[in-house]
Amino acid sequence: MTRAGPLSLNTVTVRPLTLAQTIEACARHGIPGISPWRDVLQAMGVDKAARHIRDAGLKVTGLCRGGMFTAGSRAAALDENRRAIAEAHAIGADCLVMVCGGLPAGSKDLPAAREIVREGLHAILPEARAAGVTLALEPLHPMTCADRSVLSTLGQALDLCDELGEGAGVAVDVYHVWWDPDLARQMARAKGRIAGFHVCDWKVPTTDLVFDRGLPGEGVIDIPAIRAMAAAAGWTGGVEVEILSNHWWSQDPEAVIREVKSRHAFC
Predict the structure, then answer these.
(1) CA distance 215 to 244
(2) What is the pTM of this model?
(3) DSSP states of 102-135 as a string?
(4) d(C-alpha 221, C-alpha 226), whole Å
(5) What confidence score (pLDDT) does residue 122 get?
(6) What is d(CA 150, CA 129) in angstroms, rounded to the nearest whole number?
(7) What is the predicted pLDDT for the residue at 56?
(8) pLDDT for position 1
(9) Rounded CA gap, 236 and 180, in Å?
(10) Positions of the chain with pLDDT lower than 70, given as ranges
(11) How far apart are CA 63 and CA 137, in angstroms?
(12) Angle CA 256–260–235, to nearest 5
């Protein structure tokens, strides 16, 4: 099996750190990539962050996140996504990761929610194309369907990519797709469309369905097998470690970064 690609650190993995501190830590530890969340990016200032990332020689593997089309008004959601596209362009991100949104407040109409997402993606795609920003549709585990994403499978994401065309791709997060019995077929179908590859692990037992992700090797996901599927589909990019974990957030960020580097081999 081929070795894992270059390492990238998603800023949420070391959530106690500011973006400036994370940039410095990546440079100091020899981690070549970074993927900021928008809250820490905005706290630092987009232009300042872009300069610091560039000066540190880091590759921006993605910006988290756009989407959330079903939260609040349509106009507000579209405006927020346009701001996210501009931010992704400003920092030179490979893609804007799209977490598309769950059911609107008070709604039980899942097909209608999916139509809101579809319409929202079509509405912002021209701006993304003009900015050279790939919209990376990230399917999320079905447990999040009600509150975070009505896009639950890689197959659904690729169906939308077929419809959207140029400027649309997928972000494959092993935490969200590992369980899918159709995964191998859909990964082959994703050839040329993978815009991001995110790793973490599914711990057993899982004590929190959002904030108990494990570092690679801590759980039951066969990460190298899924990465091999991505490679077979043409993915040559890096491995982005994205850990949402109350446990790891409580640890010394320096120790977490050392663990991330040591577990790159499990990818």
Answers:
(1) 10
(2) 0.97
(3) -PPTT---HHHHHHHHHHHHHHHHHHHHHHT-EE
(4) 9
(5) 98
(6) 24
(7) 98
(8) 53
(9) 23
(10) 1-3
(11) 12
(12) 150
Which residue has 């996210």 as its token pair?
84
In angstroms, the CA 118 to CA 164 distance is 9
User: By three-state DSSP, how is residue 239 classified?
Assistant: strand
* Residue in the block written with tokens 């962050």: 49
Joined tokens for residue 97: 């990761």
Q: Give the pLDDT confidence score for residue 3 in this predicted structure.
A: 66
Q: What phi and psi values does residue 154 have, to the nearest 5 degrees?
A: -60, -35
Instruction: Give me the amino acid identity at 175.
Output: Y
How far is 138 from 210, CA to CA, in rounded Å? 15
Q: What confidence tens digit (pLDDT) does each residue in 56-75 have?
A: 999 999 999 999 999 999 99
- Whole-number pLDDT of residue 161: 98
Nearest to 153 by CA among 167, 165, 163, 138: 138
Query: Would you kindly state where each structural domain of the chain is located, as residue ranges?
Result: 7-266
Query: What are the structure tokens assigned to 168, written together?
Result: 């649309």
Domain 7-266 grouped into CATH 3.40.50.2300: no
Alpha carbon 190 to its chain's center: 16
Helical spans, DSSP H, in the chain: 19-29, 38-44, 46-55, 74-91, 110-131, 154-164, 174-177, 183-189, 223-232, 246-249, 253-262
